Amino acid sequence: MEVIVAEHAGFCFGVKRAVEQVYEQVAKGRPIYTYGPIIHNEEVVKDLERRGVTVIGSEEELADVTEGTVVIRSHGVPERIVALIDAKGLECVDATCPFVKRIHNIVAKESGAGKKIVVIGNAGHPEVEGIMGWAKEGAAVVESLEEARDFTCGKDEEICIVSQTTFNYNKFQDMVEIFMKKGYNVSVVNTICNATEERQTEAAQIAARVDAMIVIGGKHSSNTRKLYEICMQECANTYFIQTVDDLHLDLPKSVRLVGITAGASTPNNIIEEVQNYVRINF
Ligand code: F3S
Fold first, then answer.
1. What CATH code would you report for 13-97?
2. Is 127 part of the annotated catalytic residue set?
3. CATH number for the segment(s) 2-10+194-281
4. pLDDT at 225 over 80
5. How far is the CA of 280 from the centre of ligand 1 (A)?
6. What predicted TM-score, i.e. pTM, was given to this entire model?
């Protein structure tokens, strides 16, 4: 079987950096915690657990930790979590992706100047929660075109719009347009990360050329789910798998060319395994 693997498949810069930082801490031999799973990949999280890394699941659990190092993942956290880690005298390793940190800084600055923050993104996603947690006053999250249309605020309020780094660029533009038409005083900072755009564009291009497309990523990874949806639009034979073990492809005989891409949290070794499996077994 002929296989095309996307160049932009797998770990992005921010995730790679965060994972490396946890492994560096493991080597130091102190109790290590990550605030939430370091990435949306069960294999990596399990490997870290075997090496003694504990995942803190909530603010309450963090309050019970008495010693050690807490690593903040690439998604970032609200300001109050950083304050809690400091207040408890724990060592904090902030592996927030610099692109996400930039959004925190914008939100803190603009909300400090009195602007109302609107985050275009998925409500409840940890990155969005983190971003909102740097606003001085309550920030709003807007997820859909309907929500953008329904949004209201005082006519004299200034609005600063930012986006979740993994949000779809076209949808973001459409939503911004709705805000503009409302006549509010709006400033927009496009904080969508290039890694996502590049991965999505390349995935669509490959999916349009191949007979079957495989998207690898964690069940709970929203960027992988989006990749899957994008590929599905171009190629009806698109499969979403977590590891090579999920690969029970019943490919039609006519399939000659298979494309592979992977979400931002998929380690290289998993991509390699899938690639080799497809090449050899089909
Ligand atoms: Fe950072 Fe972009 Fe990855 S924001 S975590 S490099 S998707």
1. 3.40.50.11270
2. yes
3. 3.40.1010.20
4. yes
5. 33
6. 0.82
